[in-house]
Structures are given as C-alpha cells and as structure tokens.
Amino acid sequence: MELTLLNVVIAVTIAIGFAALNAAYLVWAERRGAGRIQNRPGPNINGPLGLLQPPLDGIKLMAKQLIIPGGADKALFIAAPVLAMAPAIVSFVTLPFSDTIIAHNLNIGVLAIFAFASLGGISLLFAGWSSRNKYAVMSSVRAVSQAIAYEIPMLVTVITVVLITGTMNLMEIVEAQKGGIWNWYFFPFTSGLYNPLMTMSFLIFFICALAETNRAPFDLGEAESELVAGFHTEYGSMGFGLFFMGEYANIVIGSCLTTLLFLGGWDAPLPVLSFIPGVVWFLIKIYLIIATIIWIRWTFPRTTIYGLLNLSWKILIPLSLFNLLLTAGLLKVV
Amino acid sequence: MNVPLPNADHLVGIVFLIMIGLTITGGVIACNANRLVRAVAGLVVCFVGVAGLYYFLNSPFIAMMQMLIYVGAVAVTISFAIMFAAPEESKKHGPPGTLAGPFGLITAGLLFGGFTLLALKTDWQVHAKINDGSVETMGKLLLTEYAMVFELISIVLLTAIIGALIIARRGRSS
C-alpha cells in the first residue's frame, strides 16, 4: 500500500483506538472476572452487565484535578505517564493481526517491539523518582530490577524461536507455523525442529510476559500491602489513567506476541476450520490468553521479591539457555 | 485558497526534523540540567533521537539496538547509580577545571570552526544505499570482514565486567 498522510493517520487512529478500547474494557473484564472468582457480582449497576462502567470511570478520571505533589520534579512527573503509554501504542504498528491486517511489516518486528517495550522501565523509574515519595522510589526500583531480570529469559526464548524460523519478521514466523495446531511452536515434538522442550519455552515466555507487564503474581511494583500503591502512589486523575491504560495495552501486546510466536498467530487450529477469517482466530487466541492472565491474577497470591528474582535468575534463565543450546544443536542435526 | 495537503514526503521530512530536534534538545538538557536525573532524562531523549536518525540512515536494526541497549539498559543503569549514589540536596560544586572560562570558550570555538571547515571542505559522496541494511548482511559482515573488531569489542566488555567485579569486591568487608 502507498504511504500517504491519510494512511498514516488512519493507522495511528486505529492503533490508539484499539489500545484505548481494550484498556477500558479489559478493566471491566478484570473486575467482572474478579467478582466471579471471589463470588460477588462486580460492577453491574451502570448499563447492562455494567458495560457503561469504563466510560464513566474515564469521565471521572478526566474530570479530576491533576495534583502535583510539592517538591516533585514537575517535568518528569508529567512525562512519566506519557512515556508509559506511548511505546505501547507504537508497538501496535508492527503487530500483525492477520495476513493482511498490519500497519507496517518491519523485517525486525520482534526486535522492534522489545525495543519499544524497554522504554517502559525508564518511565517507571522516572515516575517513582519524580513523585518524591519513598514508597514510589522503592517500588520503581523493584519494578525495574524485575523487568531486567525477566527480560533476559524472555529474549533468550524469543531467540530460540528466531533460530527455528530464521527470521525476526512476525509475519514470516506465523507463516512457518501454518497448517494446524501441531505445527504451532508450543507443541512439542511435531512443531519447529521436533524440539521436545517447546512447551517449556512457551511457559517461560508466558511467565516472563506476566512479569514484564507487572501482573499478579508478580505485581511487586504496586504491592499495595507494602508500598501503598507503588510507583503511581502520587498520581491522580488521568496521570493514573495513563499508567493504567499503559498496563493493559502492554498486556494486549504480551498476549499478541505469545500468540504470534507460539500459538500460530491467525492460523486455524485445524486446516478444516480455515474458512473462518484469520483475524477472528487471532482475536480468539489473544482474548483467551488475556482471560488466563486475569484468572491467574485473582487465583494466586503475590510472590515475594526474593522468590521472584530467584525464579528468574536460578530457574528460568538456565532453562531458557539450555533450550537455546538444544535448539542450536537440533538446527545442526535436523 | 488552495492549500496543498502535506503528503508522505513532507511527513517523512517532518519526522526527520523532529529526530534531529530530539537529539539536540536531549543533548543540551543532558549537559545543562541541574538535577542529575533530569540529565539522564535528557540523555534518554537524545538516544531516542539518535535511534531515529539510524532509522533514516537505512539501518533499522541498529536503531532498534540503540533503543534496546542504550535506553533500556544503559540509561536505566545510570539512573540506578544516580538514585543510590547521592541525594539530590547534597549537590556540590567543585572548583572549576582548568578548561573553564576563556579556555573553554576558545576550545569550543576551535572545535566548532574545525568541524565547520571539515563539513564544508570535504567532498561528501552521497550513497543511495551502501547495502540493504538487513540483519543477514550485517551478521555475515560481522562474522567475516569485521570479525576482528567484533572479537575485540567482546574483550573490552569482558574487561569491563571483570573490572566492575573487582571494584565491587573491594568494598566488601569479608
């Protein structure tokens, strides 16, 4: 397609709209799901099934005053939530939703998404530091050490997939998994290079995605029982709203990546079912993953910071490195 | 009134200018900020701008690496160091170095003049594309033509890691 101003504007609008709509309604899904799991109704007053709750929350947040605490670093305090949200939007540029729905098919799509995601860490640091609040600083230091710890096994696992397919282009990675559920990379023995450990790398990637997006049971950055509310303690109004939206947008990106790398993207689970458009399969898959993420949050208690870092450095990193070696070996043999 | 709608070329030009602006603004903030954390923020802005320039130089891979390594790792490490090192109140002004004052101005002037001369006198050759800038080409070049440089850089990094470990060890009592 030709690059025109209109195309650019449309693509950006769709990306922002998709991210914002998802953020708003995932909050609703989360609260309804939490209600179901905890045996209570959840938000059900506003509109049918409480579906009007997200826009009302949005109006409430926007109508509030943005209070900047005394002694805070004003410029950084305002920049941090923007920095949390913007990379998430940019990542949608290179995420394919089906073989035709993609804004810009970058050759290094996987790398681009991780590069943009790395801006998130710095936004947490700035948010915590500029708030002038001990709890916020503690929390941002925690969140960043966690992000660094889990970025390593995540990237090593991604390298495994990149080794198998020989490309960093997300479209081609999905192409390589075409032809039914047994070709998807989470499936051991039959997919990829007949690697028996693919299910494990799928699990490693999923755990790391949970940790990278600061989701329970790894939400130590905003452990409200210890740190008030973590790095966004001092944020009110839309500043908080942006952090919240950024978090949910990141969850969507994480599930998209999991789907693209391990669950065959828009490929139908059985070749017979491929008459259903790919984008439908893709959306089904990402929302199943998101539902699992919400389910996990309300089922498991939060870990401790030591448990969290030990899990990454002592278990996930060695396992992912071993899998990388095994994959490299298989690449020579098969 | 027939105002032409800006087309894609204009848009690309504007983005290019934004990137140059980001690089320069970030650099200026990094040098002149009173608070160290703001200087790091300036550095981050500068890195993002430079990454954008790499993208325009037909090397998206380098651009992404710039973001991943410099913004995601180096800037985070620097801000960690600053946060743990000195509280912001105890900012100290040391004695000005020998280059401060007139010498500094002269040095700056000489550098500016030199670079200007260099920029104006050099016969710049415009290459449309040196290679396709893809990961494959780069990987092959790194492991064949530039293998020596590649290995040397890893030795430099290894030395840095060992040095950091030794310095960290010395501070411990046991």
Q: Could you explain the architecture of this structure?
A:
The complex is a heterodimer of chains A (334) and B (174). Helix content of chain A is 66%, strand content 0%. Chain A is mostly helical and 334 residues long. In chain A, helix 3 (74-91) packs parallel to helix 9 and helix 5 packs antiparallel against helix 7. In chain A, 46% of the residues are buried. Chain B is an all-alpha fold and 174 residues long. Chain B has a domain at 8-85 and 131-170. Helix content of chain B is 72%, strand content 0%. In chain B, helix 1 runs antiparallel to helix 2 (36-56) and helix 2 (36-56) packs antiparallel against helix 3. Chain B is globular, with a radius of gyration of 21 Å. The A-B interface holds A 2-5, 8, 73, 75-76, 79, 106-108, 111-112, 114-119, 121-122, 125-126, 129-130, 137, 141, 144, 148, 151, 168 and B 5-8, 10-11, 35, 37-38, 41, 44, 48, 51, 60-61, 63-65, 67-68, 71-73, 75-76, 79-80, 83, 134-135.
Tally of helical runs of chain A: 11
- What is the N-to-C order of secondary-structure elements of chain A (H for helix, E for strand)? HHHHHHHHHHH
The biggest beta sheet of chain A, please?
Answer: none
Largest protein interface, residues of each chain: A-B, 32 and 30 residues
* Spatial shape of chain B: globular
How does the helix and strand content of chain A classify structurally?
mainly alpha
User: Termini of chain B, distance in Å?
Assistant: 80 Å
The span between the termini of chain A is 38 Å
What's the oligomerization state? heterodimer
Mean of residue pLDDT values of chain A = 81
Q: Beta fraction of the residues of chain A?
A: under 5%
Helix content estimate of chain A: 55-70%
Low-confidence stretches of chain B: none
- What's the helix-strand series of chain B? HHHHHH
Overall 3D form of chain A: globular
| Number of contiguous helices of chain B | 6
Radius of gyration of chain A: 20 Å
Q: Approximately how much beta-strand content do the residues of chain B carry?
A: under 5%
What is the residue-mean pLDDT of chain B, rounded to a whole number?
80
Q: Pick out the low-confidence regions of chain A.
A: none
Q: How many runs of DSSP E, i.e. beta strands of chain B? A: 0
